[in-house]
């Protein structure tokens, strides 16, 4: 068997992303400021969130909830929408704690032959509640709050390796984000499997050992059959 352990992203990989909650928030802003398109609002919010995420590490670390509210506040102020960002965020925060499982996720974990450590850009309390609410058995996990850093920075991956007590070449990382999961794992020379639900093209230079839309498709790779046949 080539891999002795698995680093596993959570949102977008084991459970569905919070897209519906985000779209609901954007729609409420759009109704309040109809001259603003939903697409432009979502793009601006995503850009502000990514900017804050990139600078949040070490002594400057802030939780995902804090960054979500601040980035939303910036967008609301920019478009002149007098809405409460905390109230707007309530449904999104609720989803973080009760996400929907992705198809095949529970079956994959039940059949996975190697130890798994979740590595997730999320707050500790939200991840623990989500794991409990989904009924998944995931004894090892590291959050951005634990590492005081966010993927694609190395700290979260390194903490996951320590939890598994394995070296980078012994581990496969699985995630859905090109920017956070693939780029972060590539930087540490950790093999990465990309969960590509929508058949997006991989960017030039990305090192990906396997693409899948269902985690169960990775089981032959973990069982030692690199061909997947």
Automatic annotation (TrEMBL):
The keyword Nucleus does not apply. It comes from Parenemella sanctibonifatiensis. This is HAD family hydrolase. It comes from the Bacteria. The lineage of its organism: Bacteria, Bacillati, Actinomycetota, Actinomycetes, Propionibacteriales. Pfam families: Hydrolase (PF00702). Signal peptide: none annotated. One of its GO terms (molecular function) is hydrolase activity. Gene3D superfamilies: HAD superfamily/HAD-like, Putative phosphatase, domain 2. InterPro entries: HAD-like_sf (IPR036412), HAD-SF_hydro_IA (IPR006439), HAD_sf (IPR023214), PGP-like_dom2 (IPR023198), S-2-haloacid_dehalogenase (IPR051540). Keywords: Hydrolase.
């Amino acid at each position: 068997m080539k891999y002795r352990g698995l680093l596993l992203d959570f949102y977008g990989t084991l459970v569905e992303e919070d897209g519906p909650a985000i779209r609901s928030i954007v729609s409420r802003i759009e109704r309040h400021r109809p001259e603003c398109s939903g697409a432009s609002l979502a793009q601006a919010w995503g850009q502000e969130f990514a900017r804050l995420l990139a600078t949040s590490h070490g002594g400057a670390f802030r939780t995902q909830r804090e960054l979500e509210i601040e980035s939303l506040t910036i967008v609301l102020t920019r478009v002149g929408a007098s809405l409460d960002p905390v109230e707007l965020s309530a449904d999104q925060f609720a989803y973080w704690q009760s996400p929907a499982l992705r198809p095949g996720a529970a079956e994959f974990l039940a059949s996975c032959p190697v130890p798994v450590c979740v590595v997730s850009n999320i707050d500790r309390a939200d991840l623990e509640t989500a794991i409990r609410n989904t009924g998944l058995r995931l004894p090892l996990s590291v959050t951005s709050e634990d590492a005081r850093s966010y993927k694609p920075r190395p700290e979260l991956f390194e903490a996951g390796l320590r939890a598994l007590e394995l070296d980078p070449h012994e581990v496969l990382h699985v995630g859905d984000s090109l920017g956070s999961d693939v780029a972060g794992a590539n930087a540490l020379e950790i093999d990465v499997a990309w969960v590509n639900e929508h058949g997006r093209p991989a960017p030039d230079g990305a090192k990906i050992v396997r693409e899948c839309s269902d985690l169960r498709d990775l089981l032959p790779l973990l069982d030692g059959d690199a061909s997947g046949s």
